């Protein structure tokens, strides 16, 4: 599993003030560079630079951050994220080649967005994330996701961009609010190689646990990552501080993967035979699958 480190963003307590500082002379690159090196040490494959809306100073700030990151970690690919298209292009202009193409995150399945952004990614030979957020917002099910994917990828293909440079994001939603959407996303993920052969995939993994208490977030994130992996998910935007998630993603906890896959295949384990750790994963799979109604106390039941 490819991991995009998510901590480098405008809301980070460590570096947020540097992102918001308008005067380049007053910006301190050290907190950002320290964070980048720590993310790489913790196993992140890409560095996600997320400036959010970046309405003010975005076109000056994005290239500065890109240069600061690349000074600390030459050759590491970047995931550039902002709703300000000009800020993303300013970052692409100064980005030096890395060991893999840089990625623009993300291009929504809305005509105005993809017509403006797809040519930009081709100009700079960047990959891009195709976000399945359509004219009506979040797709209702896997079939709507598939229709949006076909529309956006067809446009990209016509522009000369192959599927292999596209990372499809079917959109993760909070399990405590829209429990059936998790299943819809897995079904869409299972369809992806049929409708877009060669395309990669990614997601904002932590959205699955956005809302539940903080102590439940890691196991939700870890479990759902494995469940998506079973259907071909290639990468996730990941919390670098979650060392268990990284260990699972890098193949160091095959016992957890085997258990989750077995439950997805309909083979429920004998709970009494499992350790407390493995019981928690089993219970979490069943919550995400909708076999158990979500509540904040599902691990205690």
From TrEMBL:
Transmembrane segments: none annotated. Its EC number is 2.1.1.13. GO terms for biological process: methylation; pteridine-containing compound metabolic process. InterPro entries: Dihydropteroate_synth-like_sf, Met_Synthase/Corrinoid, Pterin-binding_dom. Coiled coil: none annotated. Pfam families: Pterin_bind. It comes from the Bacteria. Residues 1-273 form the Pterin-binding domain. The keyword Iron-sulfur does not apply. Keywords: Methyltransferase, Transferase. One of its GO terms (molecular function) is methionine synthase activity. GO terms for cellular component: cytosol. Belongs to the vitamin-B12 dependent methionine synthase family. This is MetH3. It comes from Desulforapulum autotrophicum (strain ATCC 43914 / DSM 3382 / VKM B-1955 / HRM2) (Desulfobacterium autotrophicum).
């Amino acid at each position: 599993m490819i991991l995009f480190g998510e901590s480098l963003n405008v809301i980070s307590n460590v570096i947020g003030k540097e992102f918001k500082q308008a005067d380049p002379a007053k910006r301190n690159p050290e907190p950002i560079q320290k964070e980048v090196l720590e993310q790489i040490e913790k196993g992140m494959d890409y560095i996600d630079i997320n400036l959010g809306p970046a309405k003010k100073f975005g076109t000056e700030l994005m290239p500065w951050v890109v240069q600061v990151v690349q000074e600390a970690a030459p050759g590491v690919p970047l995931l550039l994220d902002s709703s300000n298209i000009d800020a993303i292009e300013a970052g692409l202009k100064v980005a030096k080649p890395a060991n893999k193409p840089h990625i623009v995150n993300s291009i929504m399945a809305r005509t105005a967005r993809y017509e403006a952004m797809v040519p930009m990614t081709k100009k700079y030979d960047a990959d891009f994330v195709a976000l399945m957020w359509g004219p009506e917002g979040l797709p209702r099910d896997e079939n709507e996701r598939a229709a949006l994917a076909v529309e956006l990828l067809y446009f990209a293909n016509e522009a000369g961009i192959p599927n292999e440079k596209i990372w499809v994001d079917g959109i993760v939603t909070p399990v405590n609010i829209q429990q059936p959407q998790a299943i819809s996303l897995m079904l869409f993920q299972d369809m992806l190689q049929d409708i877009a052969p060669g395309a990669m995939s990614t997601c904002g993994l932590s959205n699955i646990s956005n809302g539940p208490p903080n102590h439940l977030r890691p196991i939700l994130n870890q479990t759902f990552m494995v469940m998506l992996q079973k259907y071909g998910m290639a990468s996730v935007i990941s919390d670098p501080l979650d060392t268990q998630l990284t260990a699972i993603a890098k193949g160091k906890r095959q016992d957890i993967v085997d258990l989750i896959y077995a439950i997805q295949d309909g083979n429920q384990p004998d709970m009494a035979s499992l350790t407390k750790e493995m019981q928690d994963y089993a219970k979490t799979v069943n919550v995400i699958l909708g076999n158990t109604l979500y509540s904040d106390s599902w691990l205690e039941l």
